[in-house]
């Protein structure tokens, strides 16, 4: 149990376009989801926390208008990178907390490359 | 501000060797500490989770210890195998919010 799936696994997009990444909890209801970003050879950095049905809370330094997060249901959160630039190229990974709240479970990540 | 550091950044060992990975954190007021494994281009696999009240956790060939007072945790891998090659991350949860603060990881290579 406790499977979190991200889609797509990798995506290449042109500079200036927008990209949507989905994070789904497949076998549990996720009351809270987290979005992290990982640059090459660096650690994961928390970008934002999203609770179902409410606005996301962004970490300091993360542009909320650039990284749009929607958590419209208990099994789906989406991260949209708007007007992507090459410096947004990174590994984006989500995690989800269920109602049992034992620990956060992570998706497999999405490799974004902006050209 | 909590900071998590992992040493060494990279480690190469021959198969069969026992090894220790280190994690240190600056603020001892933690909720729990978790060790993850990350394969190249992949997500995270949780290995061990130690609650703040615990001293260690074991799973198979893995043993993780926690010393809150000194701000340290170690991950001990016994009889290492080539399949253990991956990046190992430690992460600290500071409160009930479930936010995790990650170290930069140790890249482990176990040579056949």
Q: Helicity level of chain A, as a percent range? A: under 10%
Major β-sheet annotation of chain A: 7 strands, mixed
* Overall geometry of chain B: globular
Radius of gyration of chain A: 13 Å
Percent strand of chain B equals over 45%
User: How many H/I helices of chain B?
Assistant: 0
Give a structural overview.
The complex is a heterodimer of chains A (115) and B (112). With 115 residues, chain A is mostly beta strands. Chain A has strands spanning 4-7, 10-13, 19-25, 30-38, 44-51, 57-58, 67-73, 76-81, 90-98, 105-106, 110-114. In chain A, strand 7 (67-73) and strand 8 (76-81) form a beta hairpin. Chain A is globular and about 40 Å long. With 112 residues, chain B is an all-beta fold. Chain B has strands spanning 4-7, 10-14, 19-25, 32-38, 44-51, 56-59, 62-67, 72-77, 86-93, 100-102, 106-111. Classes of the chains: A mainly beta (115), B mainly beta (112).
Task: Tell me the layout of helices and strands.
The complex is a heterodimer of chains A (115) and B (112).
Chain A: E1 4-7, E2 10-13, E3 19-25, E4 30-38, E5 44-51, E6 57-58, E7 67-73, E8 76-81, E9 90-98, E10 105-106, E11 110-114
Parallel strand pairs in A: 2-11
Antiparallel strand pairs in A: 1-3, 3-8, 4-5, 4-9, 5-6, 7-8, 9-10, 9-11
Chain B: E1 4-7, E2 10-14, E3 19-25, E4 32-38, E5 44-51, E6 56-59, E7 62-67, E8 72-77, E9 86-93, E10 100-102, E11 106-111
Short account of what is shown:
The complex is a heterodimer of chains A (115) and B (112). Chain A contains no helices and eleven strands. Chain A has 115 residues and is mostly beta strands.
């Amino acid at each position: 149990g406790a499977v979190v799936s991200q889609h797509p696994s990798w995506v290449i997009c042109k500079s200036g376009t927008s990209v949507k990444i989905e994070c789904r909890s497949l076998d549990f209801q996720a009351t809270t989801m987290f979005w992290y970003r990982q640059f090459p050879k660096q650690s994961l950095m928390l970008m934002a926390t999203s609770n179902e049905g409410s606005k996301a809370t962004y970490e300091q330094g993360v542009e909320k208008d650039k990284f749009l997060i929607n958590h419209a249901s208990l099994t789906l959160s989406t991260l949209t990178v708007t007007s992507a630039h090459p410096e947004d190229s990174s590994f984006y990974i989500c995690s989800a907390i269920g109602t049992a709240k034992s620990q956060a479970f992570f998706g497999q990540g999405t490799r974004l490359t902006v050209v | 501000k909590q900071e998590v550091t992992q040493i060494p950044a990279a480690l190469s060992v021959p198969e069969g060797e026992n090894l220790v990975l280190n994690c240190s954190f600056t603020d001892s007021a933690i909720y729990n500490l978790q060790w993850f494994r990350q394969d190249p281009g992949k997500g995270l696999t949780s290995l061990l989770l130690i609650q703040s009240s615990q001293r260690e956790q074991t799973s198979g060939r893995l043993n993780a210890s926690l010393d809150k007072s000194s701000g340290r945790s170690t991950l001990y891998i016994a009889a290492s195998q080539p399949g253990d090659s991956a990046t190992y991350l430690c992460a600290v949860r500071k409160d009930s919010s479930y936010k995790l603060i990650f170290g930069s990881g140790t890249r482990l290579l176990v040579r056949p």
